[in-house]
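Running co-folding for iron/sulfur cluster.
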Amino acid sequence: MSTQVPEQVEEESSADAEQQSAAQQSRMEKKRQNAAARESQEQAEAEEKASSEEDTYLLKVFRYDPEVAGKQEPRFDDFHVPYHKGMTVLDALMYARDHYDSSLTFRHSCRQAICGSDAMFVNGRQRLSCKTQLSDLEEPVRVEPLPHQEVVKDLVVDMEHFYDQMEAVEPYFQTNDLPEGEQLQSRENREKIKMSTRCIWCGACMSSCNIAAGDNQYLGPAAINKAYRFTMDEREGEEMKQHRLEILEQEHGVWRCQTQFSCTEVCPKDIPLTEHIQELKREAVKNNLKFW
Amino acid sequence: MSQSYNRGLIEDFGRWREFSAGMWAWIFHKFTGWVLVGYLFTHIAVLSTALTGAAAYTETIQTLESLLVVRLLEVGLLAVAVFHILNGLRLLLVDLGVGLHAQDKSFYASLALTGAIVVASVPTFVAGVF
Ligand code: HEM
Ligand code: SF4
Ligand code: FES
């Protein structure tokens, strides 16, 4: 059973204490002594492990599960995770899951900022947990699922809408001209689209955008960036560029962007998203003003 | 999985402490823009009720200008207008794709310059009201 609500370990000893009867007094006395000895030993061990405060990190993790009675109301759980140098938020979550509560649910795969599955809201900002060092964060570290997406369970959000928007811009190379052999790209053109190719579909940008939050039809930064990657690719040809601009020029395309720069700020791949969106706006204007 | 938890929109402005420069610039720009629109209508309304004659007009203006609140509101109006203009220029640069890497700095510059201009204007605005 992986969906159990975690039990509080500390509660067991206090429950024991309540059960004592008069006849058991001496036995309980002995037990108490043992407990005290054990406690001091545990404390020594814990102190050894956490010789300074920095050696454990306190994580406050968002919990929610519609299928478990005790978790239908969202809450935050505390996890004290022993720290080692280089530990990321994802490492800490995995430690918490493996050692404290196996029902703690979150997405991850590559652990090296390339699969894009672990974007989360950490200390008030969209971040890729595997790329976020605990040492860069203030304690307690608050881990929440991405805002503006519906929470399925704990840190897992529904990405369907994000993927729909990505698909809407036809995120694949296409051209109407029949290629003669290899379709080589010029170095300059490759440089131009270089940053836009780095997107890992993590959804951090979309989650940070409050325009996207208020307008479900807005393509969003990642999809527009994806469109930029192909619109600016000279090999697709003029006709295809026209087709791509028509998608972007729609009411819920590039014009929704209000240059808040939130997406650019959070993108773990440092893609200059606002810059790309602005450039496409200018392309769209040029496309419609044909008097020069 | 049929249920999911929707945190709604409350989280947005409840998280203002976490907003960064571009977001603040956006909020201030919208706010100042709408204040300016509001002022424009008030302005037209007030002046058009004072158009019954030269004396009525002079009296209206003199009464208004003798009130400290009005003087303070004028300082506020200047602040709002200056910020809107300066940040409007910043947004123009952003639209042209100029200096996007320094967009946060140009926001802080707009703020600082607005502050300086407003402070410098205070003596002129409140002169003679005390
Ligand atoms: C030199 C003077 C001004 C400049 C440079 C300027 C510039 C701008 C710019 C660039 C925007 C677009 C912001 C965006 O992209 O989101 C804007 C928005 C706005 N401006 Fe101005 N503006 C000026 C004067 C005014 C005045 C006098 C008023 C009021 C009568 C005004 C009211 C507004 C409003 C209400 C908006 C927000 C529109 C919206 O909701 O999108 N502005 N301004
Ligand atoms: S553009 Fe950046 S933040 Fe947005 S999905 Fe791609 S990698 Fe993530
Ligand atoms: S686990 Fe793959 S991007 Fe973080």
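Result summary
The radius of gyration of chain A is 26 Å.
Residues 30 and 259 of chain A are 69 Å apart (CA to CA).
Job closed.
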